[in-house]
Amino acid sequence: MKFEKIQAPKGVREYLPPESEAFEWVRSQLIAPAKAAGYALMELPVFEDTALFSRGVGESTDVVSKEMYTFEDRGGRSITLRPEGTAGVMRAVIENNLDRGQLPVKVWYSGQFFRAERPQAGRYRQFYQVGIEAIGSDDPAIDAEVISVADQAFKNLGLKGYRLEITSLGDAQSRADHRVDLLKYIDALNLDEATKARAEINPLRLFDDKRPEMQEAMSKAPLLMDYLSPESKSHFQTVLKYLDSLNIDYAINPRMVRGLDYYTGTTFEFIHMGLGAQSAIGGGGRYDKLMSELGGQDLSGIGWGLGVDRTILAAEEEGVIPADLGNADLFIIPLGTQTVAIKIATDLRSAGKVVEIAFGERGLKGAMKAADKSGAKYVLVLGETEVNSGSVELKTMSSGEVKSVRISDL
Ligand code: AMP
């Protein structure tokens, strides 16, 4: 009997060697500036009570209405695989009273997220994000910090071909004023029932409708940016002033709509120009009502999620991924001298070197091939004569140069 092979589920992105080295490198570069700015790690569950997302992320969003992996667990509870990170962070902050201590609460996270989208290049059903959240301050300086941490992450990777788009969704008053006029405008359009229903929950969603006739229909719609209250306007202007002082370029995009409903005030996206349709490499903004909507106190917050998968694609496109990631420092080829080889390898590894050993007695030629493939900087051929004399031949792979060194000096 022959069993059929089992394949990975449709649309999941896996990272296998050697590409996984690029994955790990990109992810650590995205995390580093967050750590440098004092954000602390939060490890959260990948599944949560479904209500967290339907209430937190919003019923009008594609994410909640079409893309969630929701199932009933054995206890009859409705569970959802997290489609984004902010709601879970907020849940954990409220549940553990982190908001009763020093504010703002500044955390970072990284891991898998799940959305049942139609898979294509840069869009997966399981994808990876690195995110940060700063909860409990509405100081515009924290908006600038959060944005600059993301910008620094992309700069550290060596990326150049991206831009920051920014807008303000204002406070409750700004949105209420705008909503009246926007609904009037939308009412006059000849829309299908489904679109009308979406508009009723969140009329801003219609700006995000990719159908050409909808883009056309919305081209003269009133823009929220023109309805900002004096406080929202001044907050936004201050954020921009800080970005200017940090030399962070941005383009104001008053038509930007984020895929999640909780955003208020400063909202932004990072777009990479070298990627195709899925060009957003990260995005975020303020969510000044989320905590109270999830049953916590009335504190504001701001954060972002950066897409690791798409950042890797951007880094590949710009050719900034170092070629020697994961390469060994030394590759040892033992010729009947395994015991010594293992000892040397162990000593050097504990001194912080990456050391590989050839296994399986396949002879010098086969082992040299493996050494070459490993990308190791140096190769050590360890014959019995060498071991007995205490002096070995160290080959520099790039130049082919061979040097005699004492084992004790390695
Ligand atoms: P969002 O939470 O939708 O703002 O997503 C933040 C970032 O995560 C986006 O800018 C993308 O880089 C990435 N992302 C979102 N959805 C996907 C997906 N289905 N596949 C790959 N990356 C994604």
Count of DSSP H/I helices: 14
Largest sheet: 8 strands, mixed
Low-pLDDT ranges:
none
Structural class: alpha+beta
Let me know the average pLDDT: 94
Name the helix and strand elements from N-terminus to C-terminus, one letter apiece: HEEHHEEHEEHEHHHHEEEHEHEHEHEHEE
Bound ligands: adenosine monophosphate
Beta-strand percent range: 15-25%
Give the strand line-up of the largest sheet: 1-5-6-11-10-9-7-8
Shape: elongated
CA gyration radius, whole angstroms: 27 Å
Q: What helical percentage do the residues reach?
A: 25-40%
Compute the number of strand runs: 16
Cα distance spanning the termini: 54 Å
Output the keywords.
single chain, 410 residues, alpha+beta, eight-stranded mixed beta sheet, 14 helices, 22% strand, binds adenosine monophosphate
Summarize it.
This protein has 410 residues and is an alpha+beta fold. The chain contains 14 helices and 16 strands.
Structure characterization notes:
The structure is a single chain. The chain has helices spanning 19-36, 50-56, 62-66, 86-95, 140-156, 172-187, 193-201, 212-217, 230-245, 290-293, 308-318, 338-350, 363-374, 384-389, and strands at residues 40-41, 47-49, 69-72, 78-81, 105-114, 126-135, 162-168, 251-252, 264-272, 280-286, 301-307, 330-334, 355-357, 378-382, 391-396, 402-406. It is α+β, with helices and mostly antiparallel strands. The protein has an 8-stranded mixed sheet with strand order 1-5-6-11-10-9-7-8, with helices on both faces. The longest helix is centred in the N-terminal third of the chain and has 18 residues, at 19-36. It is elongated. It starts with 18 loop residues before the first helix and ends with a strand. Adenosine monophosphate (AMP) is lined by residues 84, 115, 117, 122-124, 127, 129, 259, 280-283, 305, 307, 309-310.
